[in-house]
Specification:
Blueprint (H helix, E strand, L loop, with lengths): L2 E6 L15 H21 L4 E5 L10 H16 L3 E5 L12 H4 L5 E3 L9 E5 L2 E6 L23 E7 L1 E2 L13 E2 L1 H6 L4 E5 L5 E5 L2 E6 L15 E8 L2 E8 L4 E8 L6 H10 L5 E8 L8 H8 L5 E6 L7 H7 L4 H15 L3 H21 L3
Parallel strand pairs: 1-2, 2-3, 3-4, 6-7, 7-10, 8-9, 10-12, 15-16, 16-17
Antiparallel strand pairs: 1-13, 5-6, 11-12, 13-14
Helix pairs in contact: 1-2, 8-9
Length: about 375
């Protein structure tokens, strides 16, 4: 009979979330709401076990109120017969004596604290033996930790929890603590399913036509780049087989947009387009691009449309450099004309793309001031 798990990781509760400015405090509440939604999903879907593959918390030092919310949620789960198994990650590691897992008790929760797997944790779930393989990484004691997860003999369902990094990801600079592995490495452990954490995008890893392991990704976007829907995984595991269902769980969604400002002849039309992109649950970043004839007053524009979003960052990447407007002003016998000619000379003599981009930025900035101040 398959055992049903809810697999999550990288919740990063109590993260400062400074990226989101004045939304940061509310954003921290979003993360707790999403954690509650995951717990409620586990109850609603009648899972047998909640797996948390590291970084439940964002650091080793966590606020007492946040810990209390987590303790209460775990009590609700264990009170309904749902087992909870977790491993510390890189953010909420147990190396420090001040670790949240040392300072607080999580009654009924199985925390795999050892630096390598000795004997796997064995639980009897609906009459089925389920063995859990996981460890809390320590750089001084976990050299053979991955190999220690290799399946032991015996019947039952064998499940791993691992907070680590898939080799070959071009967007990830591998560090020692990241526990690198390949799909073949994981398949060689011969477990029925491995619950992964660490990467913040959802992905399932397959070998020989079967699911070996999955990353659920972060259930709430922590920064720009963690865009779009965020998931928890409902996983049904039987000996030699795992089936996975993604379930959206985020409270708010991060989205990034590119808008070509040159397509909008009137400021009101550009404003309407930006407003159209927003909803109250979107944290947005809009990059304005294209060649424009007049500098954009992005501060004013942002103020006019930000109410359509939960939070908005407006980035001006428009180009005045080749506009007809700038070319006409370059011929003026004025401070403005002199400035533009000097910038063009500096641009033509530039020895790098970075220096040329600096010239463009300077032109955009100063032209904006000329436009708003009306100076000549």
């Amino acid at each position: 009979m398959p055992i049903r798990f809810l697999h999550t990781a990288d919740l990063h509760l109590d993260s400062p979330l400074r990226t989101f400015g004045d939304l940061a405090r509310e954003r921290r509440r979003d993360f707790l709401k999403t954690f509650d939604r995951i717990v409620n999903l586990a109850i609603k879907r009648e899972v047998d076990c909640l797996l948390i593959a590291g970084d439940l918390f964002d650091s080793t030092s966590v606020g007492a109120e946040t810990v209390g919310r987590v303790q209460d949620a775990f009590s609700r789960l264990t009170g309904r017969g749902v087992q909870v198994v977790l491993i510390p990650g890189t953010h909420d590691n147990i190396i420090s004596a001040e670790s949240v897992y040392s300072r607080y008790q999580f009654t009924g929760v199985h925390i795999l604290r050892e630096p390598a797997v000795g004997e796997p944790l064995r639980l009897d779930i609906r009459g089925e033996a389920v063995l859990f393989y996981g460890f809390a990484y320590r750089s001084d004691r976990s050299r053979e930790a991955l190999e220690s997860m290799r399946r032991r003999s015996g019947d039952g369902i064998h499940v791993g929890l691992l907070h680590g990094s898939l080799k070959g990801n071009p967007e990830w600079e591998m560090r020692k603590k990241d526990i690198p592995f390949s799909v073949a490495d994981l398949a060689a452990l011969d477990l029925d399913y491995i619950a992964l954490g660490h990467y913040h995008d959802a992905a399932c890893l397959e070998e020989g036509g079967r699911v070996v392991a999955c990353y659920p990704g972060s259930p709430e976007g922590k920064k720009f780049g963690e865009n779009g829907p965020r998931y928890a995984l409902i996983v049904e595991v039987a000996p030699g087989n795992a089936s996975v269902e993604r379930v959206e769980v985020q409270t708010r969604i991060i989205r990034e947009f590119n808008v070509d400002a040159s397509l909008f002849a009137e400021p009101a039309a550009l404003e309407a387009e930006l407003a159209r992109l927003g909803t109250s649950d979107i944290i947005g970043r809009i990059r304005l691009c294209g060649t424009v004839e007049e500098p954009l007053d992005t501060a004013n524009l942002s103020g006019r449309v930000k109410g359509n979003f939960a939070w908005l960052e407006l980035v001006d990447e428009t180009d005045l450099y080749n506009s007809g407007h700038v070319k006409r002003m370059e011929r003026e016998d004025s401070i403005r004309g002199l400035f533009i000619r000097k910038i063009h000379e500096r641009y033509d003599a530039a020895g790098s793309d970075a220096e040329r981009e600096l010239c463009r930025d300077a032109l955009r900035l100063v032209m904006g001031r000329f436009s708003r101040g009306g100076g000549n």
